[in-house]
Each structure stands twice: as C-alpha cells, then as structure tokens.
Amino acid sequence: MIEEVLPAIYKIEVPLPDSPLKSINAYEEQGAQFNYRYGVEQG
User: Fold this and answer.
1) Quick check: 1 pLDDT over 70?
2) What are the extents of the domains in the chain?
3) For the residues of 18-36, what is the DSSP string, one character each?
4) What SS3 class is residue 9?
5) How many C-beta atoms surround the C-beta of residue 42 within 10 A?
6) Alpha-carbon distances of 17 from 1, 11, 34, rounded to whole Å
7) What pLDDT shows up at residue 3?
8) Which class for 26: exposed (0-12), middle (13-18), buried (19 or more C-beta within 10 A)?
9) Left (φ > 0), alpha (ψ -120 to 50) or beta: where does 8 sit?
10) CB–CB of 5/26 below 8 Å?
11) How far apart are CA 25 and CA 41, in angstroms?
12) What is the pTM of this model?
C-alpha cells in the first residue's frame, strides 16, 4: 500500500510473507528531477 504522508513524501508498506515482522515501511520523496528513497522501519 502506498500512502502520501506529506506533500511529495510517500510511505510504501512492503509485506514480508512468513516473517514475524509482517511488513516494513519504506519512504520515498519525489523531487523535481529525482526520486529519493529512505531507509525502512518495522511495520
């Protein structure tokens, strides 16, 4: 699931099948020329 948390900043929930974590969250920032990806956190 992709959710816009702030203007041009998106949280992407990445499911982890067969893992006790269930999912992690990745973040992406969209700029004028580039997309930036940030670290992940436990969901």
Assistant:
1) yes
2) 2-42
3) T-TT-EEEEEEEE-SS-EE
4) strand
5) 9
6) 15, 19, 31
7) 93
8) middle
9) left
10) no
11) 5
12) 0.67
Determine how many CB atoms are found less than 10 A away from the CB of residue 24: 16
User: Sign of the C-alpha dihedral, residues 30, 36, 37, 39?
Assistant: negative
Residue 36 has pLDDT above 80, yes or no: no
Residue 32's φ and ψ, nearest 5 degrees, are: -65, -40
Report the chain's mean pLDDT, rounded to a whole number: 81
> In the predicted model, what is the mean pLDDT of residues 15-30?
88
Helix (H) or strand (E) holding 41: strand 35-42
Rounded Cα gap, residues 2 and 35, in angstroms = 15
CB 43 within 8 A of CB 25: yes
